[in-house]
Amino acid sequence: MSESTPMAPGTSDTLLNPAPPLPPSPGSRPGKAEKPASLWSDAWHDLRRRPLFIGSSIMIVILVVMAIFPSLFSSVDPTQATTCQLATARQPPSAMHWFGKDNLGCDTFARTIYGARVSIVVGITATIVTALVGGLLGLIAGFAGGGTDTLLSRVTEIFFAIPAILGALLILSVFDTGNMWTVTLALSVLAWPMIFRIMRAAVITTKSQDYVVAARALGAGKSRIMFRHILPNAVTPVIVISMINLGMFISAEAALSFLGVGIRSPEISWGVMIADARPRFLEAPSPLLFPAAFLSITVLAFIMLGDAVRDALDPKLR
């Protein structure tokens, strides 16, 4: 009669009473495996706790709604000539006209609200165009290298050699149309090289990473490597700089309109309002101060948003 093999102390208790399963981690869904955290999910989790991001986002949402639906904020349509009364020109702010009236007797509050549309459209459109053109060319130059990189880099240096204000004045003087699309074109032509350089540097750094080398060794095509593996990991600095550039484009449009080569009357923009109010500033300061204040708040909001996103996406700054 064979003897049973002795068991280690505590083994029978462990087999008969297995340890209870670990409780699910907070935020995980039962029955589903947890997905590994990504850079964007970590950034979003961090952004939601930043007062700078929350405050700038609220301001930007209000400004965008103001640009899309100006009638929600003002019952006066300043694009109608009948709403302006020359006899009431330069009236100070009152209960009927919160920002007073300008040199032509138009309601300054209504013109400030409607002026947001042109300024924000120019800023957003120029940002998208420069991000697409500069980002795509930078991706191609950084990935291809060699002669392609050299050619695109030399072309970029030519554009960098053109002074920004002088180049914009030249382009707008040639077209001489005074609308938002020519202003957008002038700003985009001069601003895309900055995005090109940022994307090119990011791509050169990313394409030497191990996961890119592994994808190339597994036989992945060039387009798949560029858009699947390199672009998602190199686009972060472009997004951050584009958010900051959006505010700068809005201020550049105002500067060009103030100089008389950008948006022109009867179009309404903050730069046009500042230029129209300048000759009589000492007599009636409100038609200049209020659009200038809205312009400053808008530029500040986009710059703060870009700074918050940059801090959230850069692990060294957390």
TrEMBL record:
UniProt superkingdom: Bacteria
Biased amino acid composition, Pro residues: 18-27
Alphabetic keyword roster: Cell membrane, Membrane, Transmembrane, Transmembrane helix, Transport
GO CC annotations, alphabetized: plasma membrane
Annotated Polar residues bias: 1-15
Region (Disordered): 1-36
A Pfam family annotated for this UniProt entry: OppC_N
Keyword match Repressor: no
GO biological process, one term: transmembrane transport
Family, as annotated: Belongs to the binding-protein-dependent transport system permease family.
Name of the protein in question: Peptide ABC transporter permease
